[in-house]
Structure formats: C-alpha cells, structure tokens
Design a protein that fits this description.
Strand 1 and strand 2 form a beta hairpin. 10% of the residues are buried. Strands 1-2 form a two-stranded antiparallel ribbon. It is mainly α. The protein is built from four helices and two strands, in the order E-E-H-H-H-H. The chain is elongated. Helix 1 packs across helix 3 and helix 1 crosses helix 4. The longest helix is centred in the middle third of the chain and has 17 residues.
C-alpha cells in the first residue's frame, strides 16, 4: 500500500514498502552508506596517516537513511567523505 507524502519544494513523493524518500531503495541507501564509510577510511592527512582513527569507526553510526537520501541527490560518497573530514 502506498502513501502520498509532501516532499521537497512541495512536490509529491510516492513512498511504498520498498522505497524511501526521494525514490531511493533501501539497497541503494545501504550501498551508498558502505561506499561512504569506505571513502572515510581511505581519507589521509598531509602526512599520509588516516584522517580518522580506527577507533572512530567502532561506534560510528553515520547518517540516518533520511539524511543520506537527501545528500545522495547532490554528492557522491567520496564528496561526502571529503566534506565530513574538513
């Protein structure tokens, strides 16, 4: 069963059991999150050391699905990782 929800800029977004906000599936969101975390782990400082310590990822929960779907429209996982580590 589908629900109609008011979305960004007063457009209607159709959401059903497989779709999340902005038309992304749960699988797409999970894949984006994995790529984002992979990019975060690969970020290095000017000395070639990891930008974030490994302990950071022990309790890293990242963004909610809703937040990621908004950012997925405008950023790649690499761009988001660069923003996150500024």
């Amino acid at each position: 069963m589908a629900k109609i929800v008011f979305g960004f800029m007063r457009t209607l977004v159709l959401i059903n059991s497989n779709m999340n906000y902005y038309g992304f599936t749960k699988e797409q969101i999970d894949n984006f999150r994995k790529e984002f975390i992979k990019e975060l782990r690969s970020m290095k400082d000017s000395n070639g050391n990891p930008s974030l310590p490994e302990a950071f990822f022990d309790n890293f929960e990242g963004y909610s699905d809703e937040s990621l779907t908004q950012m997925m429209q405008y950023n790649t996982p690499k761009e988001l990782a660069e923003i996150y580590t500024l």
